[in-house]
Design a protein that fits this description.
This protein has 6 helices and 7 strands; from the N terminus they run ααβαβαββαβββα. With 190 residues, the protein is α+β, with helices and mostly antiparallel strands.
Length: 190
């Protein structure tokens, strides 16, 4: 276990750069990369995007915790990566990121702004991140993803579903077979 958070951030930066070159650590950019394997699952039946009541919120959490555990592993050492557009980040969020000593600043490749990116070592545990998962589902949090420190697998929830970036295409096919009813009916998988 690495105690120095800034040291852990440097390990993350080197790993990310090795795997993804100059690509910013933002899950929505990974989908367009030809260097990764990708699959998307919807958070609710019939591709419904937002929960309207508690039963639907519980379904989002159920699917999130199942998929997160399958792709990352229970109790797996991960990095939690949270992002916010610099101009929209709150003072308290920036203070939290700075106090952790793990801040990255990354230009957006398509627009004229910067992302503030927090990288924190953690362990994936089913149910441990439910509050954050609901914030993401309700669009009350910026981009978030977990990356397994050993396998490099990524679990990236968004409002409406979950993007998974497994280590291999074989893993993509396995995930597709496990949860076919959660997949998009569109040919592009979105």
């Amino acid at each position: 276990m690495i105690v120095d958070a800034s040291q852990d951030c440097n390990v993350f930066r080197r790993r990310w750069s090795y795997l993804h070159g100059n690509l910013s650590p933002l899950a929505h950019l990974l989908r367009a990369s030809d260097r990764v394997h990708w699959i998307r699952f919807h958070a609710l039946p019939d591709s419904k995007r937002y929960a309207e009541h508690e039963i639907e919120r519980q379904e989002i959490l159920r699917r999130a915790n199942i998929l997160g555990t399958e792709i990352l592993g229970a109790d797996a050492a991960c990095w939690l990566i949270q992002s916010c557009i610099e101009e929209y980040s709150t003072a308290s969020w920036r203070a939290q990121v700075v106090s952790q000593g793990v801040c990255l600043r990354s230009p957006d490749p398509e627009d004229d702004f910067h992302w503030i990116i927090s990288v924190v070592p953690t362990q994936w545990r089913p149910g441990a991140f439910n509050d954050l998962l609901i914030e993401v589902a309700d669009e009350r949090a910026g981009p978030v993803f977990w990356m397994n420190q050993n396998s490099n697998a990524i679990f990236a929830p968004y409002d409406g579903g979950f993007d998974l970036f497994p280590p291999s295409q074989l893993d993509v096919e396995h995930m597709r077979e496990l949860h076919p009813e959660w997949l998009s009916s569109y040919p592009d998988g979105l």
